[in-house]
Automatic annotation (TrEMBL):
Coiled coil: none annotated. It comes from Lachnellula hyalina. It is found in: Cytoplasm. SUPFAM superfamilies: S-adenosyl-L-methionine-dependent methyltransferases. GO terms for molecular function: protein-lysine N-methyltransferase activity. The gene is EFM4. Pfam families: Methyltransf_31. GO terms for biological process: methylation; vesicle-mediated transport. Transmembrane segments: none annotated. InterPro entries: Efm4/METTL10, Methyltranfer_dom, SAM-dependent_MTases_sf. This is Protein-lysine N-methyltransferase EFM4. HAMAP family: Methyltr_EFM4 (MF_03188).
């Protein structure tokens, strides 16, 4: 990258991980495995880097502490979360107070506001619903293709103006690996920012976890009006 922080990074080489077929196949297999053994909740993405264990305290320190990033009216009881590319819904389960193994974490923090996990793989949505139901946890899961569906379908109820926190754990990575192009001839990742912005309420938080992009590269992708960097490496 050059010295200009607004210069877009070079694109990643396309990969099967950027295709819907890959994820449909993966979650079909994980659904089958879960049906045979309900303790099998599939792959916990980024577990090797402890991503969830890093993001959870980040949320607490920036939302619940004196920083009050989302304002004093947003609390642990009412903060809303939208999880893009939810997969098996594991991150939302953690936010609901379960530990890495899906058991109640007596020492963990439990966020009680509305939670919605969305994915463009219908198999993922079904998988996440089954796991949450087996844990007795109230979380919504819906089919939603970020790059092609209207945001209005998930901007409902109190979140009609956007969600307090929008989570992306690897979804921008996967989109960056797609060779598809949009109606303007751009790689899909080039249109990600404009697709995700309406989902975040004014003053809300977009939290992107990536293994393919550095913190500086993510800033280059997302810099501009409407977004202010508050953390990351």
């Amino acid at each position: 990258m050059g010295s200009n922080p607004l210069t877009r990074p070079n694109h990643l080489e396309p990969s099967p991980l950027g295709t819907k077929e890959y994820w449909d196949s993966l979650y079909t297999t994980e659904l089958h495995n879960h049906s045979a053994d309900t303790s099998d909740v599939g792959t916990i993405w980024f577990s090797d880097s402890g991503a969830e264990n890093k993001v959870l305290p980040f949320l607490s320190s920036h939302i619940l502490s004196d920083k009050k990033l989302l304002g004093p009216e947003t609390t642990q009881q009412n903060c809303s979360f939208l999880d893009l590319g939810t997969g098996n819904g594991h991150f939302l389960l953690r936010l609901r107070g379960l530990d890495e193994d899906g058991e109640v974490d007596e020492e963990g923090e439990k966020w009680e506001g509305r939670m919605l996990g969305v994915d463009y793989s219908a198999q993922s949505v079904e998988f996440a619903r089954r796991i949450a139901a087996s844990k007795g946890v109230e979380i919504e899961f819906e089919y939603f293709d970020l790059m092609s569906d209207s945001p209005s379908s998930i901007l409902t109820n109190d979140e009609s103006g956007g969600w307090d926190v929008v989570l992306d754990k690897g979804t921008f990575d996967a989109i960056s690996l797609s060779e598809e192009r949009d109606g303007q001839g751009r790689r899909l990742c080039e249109g990600y920012r404009e697709k995700v912005m309406p989902l975040v309420r004014e003053g809300g938080l977009l939290l992107v976890t990536s293994c393919n992009w550095t913190g500086e590269e993510l800033r280059a992708w997302f810099a501009g009006a409407g977004l202010r960097v508050v953390g990351g490496g």
